[in-house]
Amino acid sequence: xxxxxxxxxxxxxxxxxxxxxxxxxxxxxxxxxxxxxxxxxxxxxxxxxxxxxxxxxxxxxxxxxxxxxxxxxxxxxxxxxxxxxxxxxxxxxxxxxxxxxxxxxxxxxxxxxxxxxxxxxxxxxxxxxxxxxxxxxxxxxxxxxxxxxxxxxxxxxxxxxxxxxxxxxxxxxxxxxxxxxxxxxxxxxxxxxxxxxxxxxxxxxxxxxxxxxxxxxxxxxxxxxxxxxxxxxxxxxxxxxxxxxxxxxxxxxxxxxxxxxxxxxxxxxxxxxxxxxxxxxxxx
Length: 284
What we know:
The protein is built from 8 helices and 2 strands; from the N terminus they run αβαααβαααα. The chain has 284 residues and is mainly alpha-helical.
């Protein structure tokens, strides 16, 4: 709005620069025709910049209509010598433009005052919003502190009430009493797998271990120990087999080794069984 008023004031000022303050009022048709031509040129110039609803354009149209009416009236009147001389008078167009310029400048001053007032109000509102935000943060902090203090206060009230009730019960001898109905007893035997089961499993594994070791050794030993094994390996039949011939010394040696192994096995089993029995009896 201010920019529009400034543009209008500049336009009025430029129009005033091209108009004389006084005019010679002639009563001939040519005088009116000249004035109409000047106003039409100014109207065409304004139409190049503004719409037909622009205030200056509307004013010029009204002035042109009035001048055309006066021109028609002058054309109907008879022409004499005194009417050709004319007389000096104040230019009404100049006066009207000056009045419009003064009004426009007054409107500009009003708009400036309004803008200044609105700017001041905006600054006040901005400061007020800053204060509101600061107060809001302070209010949130105070609310949080109040909630914490309220929880602490409620907890203290509950503790005081419990202490008061306990004190009255102790005074009246009606406090909490506990009575043991049945004493706890420790188990005399362990739960889960018994020692005898582990002992039997150990004895079984001890007896089966040598046989397993021998079987594993035979699996990894590359030597041929039987006729059938040789036939399977080479894919041909064996024609002659030389039997093993053992000397009396080797036989005696083998019997001694077997006897020693048997005695050692019997002693081992006897010691193992003795240890298990003593453990079951609680001696060891």
